[in-house]
Write a structure and sequence with these properties.
Layout: H1 8-18, H2 21-40, H3 45-53, H4 57-86, H5 95-111, H6 117-129, H7 133-158, H8 166-191, H9 193-199, H10 202-217, H11 222-246, H12 253-266, H13 277-289, H14 294-325
């Protein structure tokens, strides 16, 4: 008998959190902030829009395709982390299912405050696979730690080739601080486990034990896990490179890598999808670190965010609605135990 369970009440709760008044308020505030930036920096939106419309459609189509391969790579990586944490490959769904949940997590991040997508992904996996929420969150923490390390390493590779003064070092400093903070958290988990378990009530201690197991056990099989992570970041870098080519702009590869990584760090700002922070930050970095005009930088941001933000909302919403309308059709069923 399948252990797949549908929880309509939980689905309603998630929808209320994602499509909530605070989310709408944040979108309005982010839009007002973008309007302020346009007027403050004298961006000619008509010129930027004309440049965006003149982009090469073949390069754009390829950019979209490359962008969505990152979900396959990240889904494959997360599946490995789940296998490491659960200790049994037979109870972990396939790459297609894990990729679905990664995409839905990005969708939730794009329409909600405070990056709720990670919690939503863990919620879905718990609900559909009868798994531990705490252990699943632990695997996502490990995933974030691995991403932070890869971002830092790629920044260290690209920054020496850039001439931008303070801006590049600020981004690098943020990445270093992020890795240091997460490393510190993991060290505390390793060396203070017994003390934490003793201090917690029995019920919370049991949940922390599963979270601890999910986070630390995920780091087994590091070579393939790292490889999938690198492929995911290469896909994101490739997307931006293709957008640059579509617009006929000239940007060096190190700067393409740097902007891709800066983009990901800016999405940590707790507005939906980093809205407001990403657009202003990326455009500002492009102007400071390249010969692009503010209008060309705005055109690049406009096209790239259409792929990484608007398309995620459209594709993610479609997948979300299909899964709600046809529960179990796209969700992998947990195999029955004899």
């Amino acid at each position: 008998m399948s252990r797949f369970k549908a929880h309509p009440d939980g689905a309603v709760s998630i929808k209320r959190r994602v499509f909530s008044l605070p989310t709408l308020v944040s979108l309005v505030l982010a839009g007002a902030f973008l309007a302020f930036l346009v007027t403050r920096f004298d961006i000619d939106l008509a010129a930027a829009w004309d440049q965006a419309k003149a982009s090469n459609p073949w390069y754009l189509a390829l950019a979209v395709a490359v962008h969505y391969t990152t979900f396959a790579f990240r889904g494959a990586r997360w599946r490995l982390l789940l296998r490491n944490a659960q200790g049994s490959a037979s109870h972990v769904p396939g790459v297609a299912y894990c990729s679905q949940l990664v995409l839905l997590g990005w969708f939730a991040n794009s329409v909600s405050w405070f990056r709720l997508g990670d919690a939503y992904r863990a919620y879905l996996y718990r609900d559909e696979q009868d798994a531990s929420f705490s252990r699943t969150i632990g695997t996502i923490l490990a995933e974030r730690m691995l991403d932070a390390i890869l971002v830092l390493l790629l920044l260290l590779v690209s920054v020496p080739f850039l001439v931008g003064g303070q801006a590049t070092w600020i981004v690098l400093g943020v990445a270093i601080a992020l890795v240091a903070a997460m490393s510190g958290a993991l060290l505390v988990m390793i060396f203070a486990k017994v003390r934490v378990l003793r201090a917690l009530p029995a019920r919370l201690a049991e949940r922390y034990q599963r979270f601890h197991q999910g986070a630390l056990a995920s780091f087994a099989q590091l070579p393939p896990v790292t490889l999938w992570g690198i492929l995911g970041w290469l896909a994101e870098t490739g997307r931006l490179f293709l957008v640059v080519r579509a617009l006929g702009l000239e940007i060096d590869i190190p700067l393409v890598i740097f902007i891709t990584l800066a983009n990901s760090l800016l999405t940590l700002v707790p507005t939906p999808g980093g809205l407001g922070a990403v657009e202003s930050g990326v455009a500002g970095l492009l102007v400071r670190l390249s010969s692009l005009s503010i209008n060309s930088a705005a055109a690049l941001v406009l096209v790239d965010r259409a792929i990484t933000y608007l398309s995620i909302i459209m594709v993610g919403a479609t997948l979300f609605l299909v899964r709600q309308a046809l529960p179990g059709l796209l969700a992998a069923r947990r195999p029955a135990h004899p």
